[in-house]
Every structure is written in structure tokens, then in C-alpha cells.
Description:
Number of helices of chain A: 6
Strand content of chain B: under 5%
Radius of gyration of chain A: 24 Å
Helix content of chain B: over 70%
Distance between the termini of chain A: 87 Å
Largest interface: A-B, 39 and 29 residues
Oligomer: heterodimer
Shape of chain B: elongated
Strand order of the largest sheet of chain A: 1-2-3
Number of domains of chain A: 2
Structural class of chain B: mainly alpha
Radius of gyration of chain B: 15 Å
Number of strands of chain A: 5
Number of domains of chain B: 1
Largest sheet of chain A: 3 strands, antiparallel
Helix content of chain A: 55-70%
Number of helices of chain B: 2
Amino acid sequence: MSEIHVSALETESGTTTVVVGDTRIVVPPPTKPHHILLGKLGFWAQVGFMLAYIGVLSGAMFYFQFGLGEFPCPLCITQRMGMMLSSLGALYVIVNSLRGTLSPSGFMTGLGFSILGALLGAFMSIRQILLHIMPGDPGYGGAVLGLHLYTWALVSFVVVLVFAGVLLTFGTEFLPVRPSSTFGKVLAWIVIGVFLFTVVANLISVFALEGFNWYLPDDPTGYELFTQLGWN
Amino acid sequence: MDTIVFALILASALIIIFVKKRWIVVLGFAVAFVASAALFAHHVTSTLDLSF
């Protein structure tokens, strides 16, 4: 039996380094109340991010598509996909936070998903903006506050990139901490449920638009599925 | 194709919720991401008549 040397050193920042034989263990300082507060802020920021995209996706679908009867073009549909891919990052962070299994590296995986989804979506919306950039071009579909929906989509993707960039700059300060109340947890799961419903509603809506064709027409004028089934 | 891509995104969301292994989650996201990018590439049919 050999003797194992154990020593401990506490630094000014509160970190304790314990050395057991050849192994070095760094013990972080105890969690302070403001870390919990920032963590909770981080959690609800992710929920807010998801809610914002649910609002945008639902607004585009229920108001512009069903309300005003404007059929989305193929590029508009791909931008909805970009928004959903970006939201998957927030979903990953929220779900793991609610489970209590969110690690700093898991937090980064979620932010990575958000950045990749936003970058792809930005490419899609920039392509559509450039298609209509020539002077005199009326653009595609209606405008909101003077900007077309694909331009607003680009604004939203840039906001996501800034959001992820700021969180990454602060490292683990905003590492989400799940709410302690049952109400908070249930509210977060409801938002997750509404997100899933939004994806399903888009799936059904695009199936009705596309029918049994492989791709959407460049300028859709009706629901192809109903025509193929002889319903109109 | 659009319907299939939405189905892949839905599947990726369900994997995030129900599967705990991270490599499966990343794989699900990657498949949905590549499918969306491929669909976008299909719709980019011509070079724009613009000079950058």
C-alpha cells in the first residue's frame, strides 16, 4: 500500500484546488444568489426567444395565409424552416434545463443550433431580398410597417445571432436555471407544446399547398392537395 | 419535399424532448438542417443579374 498525498489550496476568487496524488480537482466557489437570478433570467430569455418565433410563425400562417389569403412562396416556406431550426436550439436548452441536466457544454450545443439555424435562414431571406431589390419591384406579398415579411425574417435572424453572441460573451453567467415553482415549469412545457403544434400546423398547411408534388410552384395560387383530390 | 422537411424538423424536436443522448440529438438536427439547405439550394435556380 502506497501513501497518497492530499493538499488543498483556496484562491482569492473563492476557487478551491484539491490535489489528490497526481489528480487536480478544481472546486468552484459556492453559487451566489445573483447567479441563480441570472440563470432564471437566462431560462426565461430562451422561453421568450421560442415564444417570439411561435408568434412570427403563427402570424405569418394564420394572419397572412389564412386571414388575407396570401399564399407563401417556396422561399418564404424555407425561411419558416430556418426559424424552426433556430428555435430547436432554445428547445434543447429549455428541455435539458427543466430536466436538470443542462451542462455548460449542453448550453453551447443549444446556442450552436440557434446560430446555425439563423445563419441558414439569413441566407434564405437575403436571397429573397436580392430577388426584389431592383428599383420599381413591388416585392412579394404584403408589407408590415413598410417592410416585406422576408426582410423582417432577416431582421429576426440577425436578432438571434446577436442574442446568442451576447450569451456566449458572458460564458456561463446566463446558464439557464429551471424555475422552482410548478407554475413556471408547467408554463415552459405549455410553450414547448405550442411550438410543436406550430410545426405540425405548418406541416399540414404546406402539405395542403404542395399536394403530392415534390416542390411548391414559384407563385402558388391555391391548395394543390384539394385540387388533386377533386375537392374544388 | 417541403412536407418531408417539416416532418424532419418535427422529428428533430421530438428527439430533443424524448432522447437524452446528445449525439442522436445532434444527428437529428443535422439531418433536418441539411434537408432544409438542400431544399433552399433547389429553389436557387439562377444567378442574380446584379453586380456585387
